[in-house]
Amino acid sequence: MSYVLFYKEDLYGCYGRIEILRTNILIILFKLLExxxxxxxxxxxxxxxxxVPDFTVSxxxxxxxxxxxxxxxxxVEKIVHxxxxxxxxxxxxxxxxxxxxxxxxxxxxxxxxxxxxxxxxAKKHYLGTMYYEHWKLLDPVNCNKVTHAMHQFITDEIxxxxxxxxxxVKFGEVVYENASDINYQVWSANAVNWNRPAxxxxxxCYQAQEMKYQEKGVFGIVVTPRYGYKKLVPLEISNFT
Length: 241
Description:
Helices cover 40% and strands 16% of the residues. By secondary structure, the chain is α/β, with parallel strands linked by helices.
């Protein structure tokens, strides 16, 4: 079982353990309290339900808690994954967050750097869309839910990038010939081809095929569970051991 947390219809995260889910809800609540967007009574009412030592997923079915969370636009969806799509999603979302953080760091250090993202806009991006069939093969039951969650998560990351760097984020076709140390081409990758040694060819199809070789500005992000989904983030910053 995995849990997908939505806040104000935006995907906040995907968690494999109920303890991590409730901790993140408490974090959001505390931030809302700090910004005076909720009062202390509301905060205490919800946190009292969430903070009990023997908290389980069934606690979310308590009508009072459900009502309070609904008022604040929280929503929790459960993913039952016999074929581990929930586990794959957790790892891949962590990787996506890591890669977008790397982009932010690169763009912060050099104001000349621009980024091209495949698609028409943050909501109509093409990162991973061609690989939805891979998720369906892994888990036919939850495929639509999982791919929607991933697409929304990427949309939120792109939105954050646009807010911070505005006109330096562009949308359109990603092309190898346009890649350089100041023009990053962001493309849909897998665990095998996302970060090859410099000068090595990039195996695969779709956007990977277009990228051709690993060079500066060729920036892959893993969006498919095929070929693996673990160890995509440095161990020292990963939530997984």
